[in-house]
Amino acid sequence: MKTSYGKKGDIVKKTVKNAGTVSKKKVSSVFKPKVSGKITDKSTSVKVYAKKGTTLYVKHGSETLAKKKYKKSGYQSLSIKRQKAGEVITFFADNKKGRSKYVEKVVSDVTAPAKPKVEAAGYDIRVTGEVGTGVYIKDVTVDDMRDNWIFMGVLEKKVEFFTPYMYYLLDEPWNDGPYQVRLVDAWGNKSKIVTVNIPNKGAEVSD
């Protein structure tokens, strides 16, 4: 998809990170732990299954987020501090024989982008928001059947200009809206919607 200035763009995917060495112990026949559910950037605990007599580690690279000795086999909850989206969290269990194989979980992003600032600028709209997010627009004219969200491009910098009529191919007279605008990140999280009119004279924006 092209923006109003011919730039192509894709919603930026956050790089998955693994912060260095996790453990120097050799892999043995220790039972590999099982992690229940997904880990998000809002998670403050994890639920993990491990075998009796093993010690479970939850690590981000060399940093230990949680450690627990299992007195019986089963699932137990461990508290962790919040992690950034895209980070890799590693789980393993160990005993005197060595350690289990790693179980790696990528932290999912469930935090929506902040609501963008949208201003009319002539026939364009000026969008201010989170860099790397996709900009979507929707024509909500009452008597219009165009009710689908259209991808206009990516915020490659904090402020970008987009031209709605390039996507709707509107006939004259000029349709001044209203239009709805929102941001969507690589994880599919959607910002709150901003409504904007783009009249020939002046501009109006409402929350």
Keywords summarizing the entry:
207 residues; Immunoglobulin-like; 5-stranded antiparallel sheet; 1 helix; 16 strands; 39% strand; elongated; disordered N terminus
Description:
By secondary structure, this protein is mainly β. The protein folds into two domains: 34-106, Immunoglobulin-like, CATH 2.60.40; 117-206, Immunoglobulin-like (Sandwich), CATH 2.60.40. The chain contains one helix and 16 strands. It has one helix at 165-168, and strands at residues 34-36, 45-50, 55-60, 63-69, 74-79, 88-95, 98-99, 103-106, 117-121, 124-128, 134-139, 150-154, 159-162, 179-184, 194-197, 204-206. A hairpin with a 2-residue loop joins strand 6 and strand 7. The longest helix has 4 residues, at 165-168. The two termini are 27 Å apart.
Per-chain topology:
Layout: E1 34-36, E2 45-50, E3 55-60, E4 63-69, E5 74-79, E6 88-95, E7 98-99, E8 103-106, E9 117-121, E10 124-128, E11 134-139, E12 150-154, E13 159-162, H1 165-168, E14 179-184, E15 194-197, E16 204-206
Antiparallel strand pairs: 1-2, 2-5, 3-4, 3-6, 6-7, 6-8, 9-10, 10-13, 11-12, 11-14, 14-15, 15-16
